Structures are given as structure tokens and as C-alpha cells.
């Protein structure tokens, strides 16, 4: 019981630790060390393989995406799990903090069970991907590199989707916003059919302010913004926002705010009794129905098991 309580406190107070830790570092060192400590606390990378990982299912292809950086070419470790159906809809899976791909397989499997082909990546510094400590800008760049690969794997823009969980939800919103803005400026259609944001938040600063009830000017202290609330209104594709009603790490009201800020067509799915990680499993029937009704995927999507 004590271990569970400590785990809950760790997740719940993540941003508070980031802010207070950053303040201490700033007082004793300087801005560069402050930014590094903040990134360490935000991403909380767990090295190695997740304890519950039992290996890749048959059909999953592993490969590395080369990615040019100012320091040279780095490689982003990726999984591609094609669906059985010909020309199935394809989704880019963007995970949150802490766990690498080996800790994500249960959710990736559920998306595959819905009928998607799934491209999932580890950001730089996670799992087998090269690079050191990630940053907000680097995970955005990694997501964009993965998106370019998805366009090669699924040539039909009407069958490409973006999915992000938790912190990955903010990465997904940024990618959808960038694609929407570029398409608008170029006078062409957005090259994606939909965005799915699960268990995410409006911005890192707003999450910190509400969970800690602090009067500190948090938005000025944090260098990692992940400001989805200011981007989602300019996302020009259908948006599905999902959240567990019993999420103790990120309250569901943050997804409600994202939904309110998004433009139509959109849908909000709040899953009863679900926590931060199991909305897709507990709400699989409603989840599948929302995918069909909002994105028009038809019979190829099916209830996850």
C-alpha cells in the first residue's frame, strides 16, 4: 500500500517537483543547468525494458529512422505493425513520459485491434533511439520525422491519423497544428484525417498551477511549455479527445478544456472508472464507435480485446 501511495504521489506531483527542483538549481547554478534539470523531471526516462514486456507480437517490424541534427545523423527507433486489411488506416503513435516503447505495447496492440496499422516511435533518448536528454523541441522534431515516414507507408491522406497519450498528446497536437498551418498557407488539404488525444493536458504550466495550487508565476519558470490549448483551435481535422474519469495524475477537466477549444468536427469521450492508462481498454466499445462515427473508418475498425 505504501509503495502504491508513493507511486501516486510521484505521478501527481511531477510538475511540482519540476518547478521546485528547477528553482533550487537556478538558485545554486544557472540557466543551462536549470533547463537540463527541468527536462529530466518532465521526461523521467526509465532506462531498459519495461518489466511487463514479453516481446514483440508476430508481424511487428523494427527499424531505425535516420534523422539529421546539427550534431549529425541520429536514429529514432520505430515499430511498424501493419494491419491485416489491405490499405488499412494508419496511425502515428506518440507516447508520453517515462516509459519507452516496451512499456507501450498494450496500448499499441489495442489500436492495432481497432484495425489500424501502427507506426510507433521512441523519441531521442528513449529506449533504443539515439541521442541524449530530449526537449520539447526535439520531441516535436522526432514526431515530424516519423510523420514523414508514415506518409510513405500510407499514401492516402484520408487514411492517416495521429495519436498521442499523456505528454504525447501535446506532441500530437503540435504536429496536427503544424500540418494544419502549413496546409492553410499552401492552400491545400491537410494531409491527415484525424487527431486522437488521450489523457493529456492543456499546457504544462496550467497543469502545474492547478495541481500544486501555487502562486508562483509558473509559465515564466518553465522552459518546456507543451501549450496545447493555444494550438488545438487551429487544428483543421476531426479531433477525438479521450480521458478516464478516475485519472489521478491528470484530471479529466483538462481534456474537457481541450475539447472546448477544438473546432468541429470533434468528440469528447470520458470513460467511467478509467485511470490514466486504461481508457482504451475499459471504454473499448465506445472508443470504437467514436472512431467510426467521427473519422468514418467503417467496418474495418472493430472492438479491441
Q: What do you see in this structure?
A:
With 305 residues, this protein is α/β, with parallel strands linked by helices. Helices cover 41% and strands 17% of the residues. The protein has eleven helices and eight strands. It has helices at residues 2-12, 14-28, 31-43, 105-113, 136-153, 167-186, 204-212, 218-221, 253-261, 279-282, 284-295, and strands spanning 61-69, 72-81, 90-94, 117-121, 160-165, 194-198, 239-244, 266-271. Helix 2 (14-28) packs antiparallel against helix 3, helix 2 packs across helix 7 and helix 5 packs across helix 6. The protein is globular and about 50 Å long.
Question: What keyword list fits this structure?
Answer:
305 residues, alpha/beta, Rossmann fold, 8 strands, globular, disordered N terminus
Distance between the termini: 30 Å
CATH superfamily: Alpha/Beta hydrolase fold, catalytic domain
Low-confidence stretches: 1-12, 14-29
CATH architecture field: 3-Layer(aba) Sandwich
Write down the Rg.
19 Å
- CATH fold field value: Rossmann fold
Amino acid at each position: 500500500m505504501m509503495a502504491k501511495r508513493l507511486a501516486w504521489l510521484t505521478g501527481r506531483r511531477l510538475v511540482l517537483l519540476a518547478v521546485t527542483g528547477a528553482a533550487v538549481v537556478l538558485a545554486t547554478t544557472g540557466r543551462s543547468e536549470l533547463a537540463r534539470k527541468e527536462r529530466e523531471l518532465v521526461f523521467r526516462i526509465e532506462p531498459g525494458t519495461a518489466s511487463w514486456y514479453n516481446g514483440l507480437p508476430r508481424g511487428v517490424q523494427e527499424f531505425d529512422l535516420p534523422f539529421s541534427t546539427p550534431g549529425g545523423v541520429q536514429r529514432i527507433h520505430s515499430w511498424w505493425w501493419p494491419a491485416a486489411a489491405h490499405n488499412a488506416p494508419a496511425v502515428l503513435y506518440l507516447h508520453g513520459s517515462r516509459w519507452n516503447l516496451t512499456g507501450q505495447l498494450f496500448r499499441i496492440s489495442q489500436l492495432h485491434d481497432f484495425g489500424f496499422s501502427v507506426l510507433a516511435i521512441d523519441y531521442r533518448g528513449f529506449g533504443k533511439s539515439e541521442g541524449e536528454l530530449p526537449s520539447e523541441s526535439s520531441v516535436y522534431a522526432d514526431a515530424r520525422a516519423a510523420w514523414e515516414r508514415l506518409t510513405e507507408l500510407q499514401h492516402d491522406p484520408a487514411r492517416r491519423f495521429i495519436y498521442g497519450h499523456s505528454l504525447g498528446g501535446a506532441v500530437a497536437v503540435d504536429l496536427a497544428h503544424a500540418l494544419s498551418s502549413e496546409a492553410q498557407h499552401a492552400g491545400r488539404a491537410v494531409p491527415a484525417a484525424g487527431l486522437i488525444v488521450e489523457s493529456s493536458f492543456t499546457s504544462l504550466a496550467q497543469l502545474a498551477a492547478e495541481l500544486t495550487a501555487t502562486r508562483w508565476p509558473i509559465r515564466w519558470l518553465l522552459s518546456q511549455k507543451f501549450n496545447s490549448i493555444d494550438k488545438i483551435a487551429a487544428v483543421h481535422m476531426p479531433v477525438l479527445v479521450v480521458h478516464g474519469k478516475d485519472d489521478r495524475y491528470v484530471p479529466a477537466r483538462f481534456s474537457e478544456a481541450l475539447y472546448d477549444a477544438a473546432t468541429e468536427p470533434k468528440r469528447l469521450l470520458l470513460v467511467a472508472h478509467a485511470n490514466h492508462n486504461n481508457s482504451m481498454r475499459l471504454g473499448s466499445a465506445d472508443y470504437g464507435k467514436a472512431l467510426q462515427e467521427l473519422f468514418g473508418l467503417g467496418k474495418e475498425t472493430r472492438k479491441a480485446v
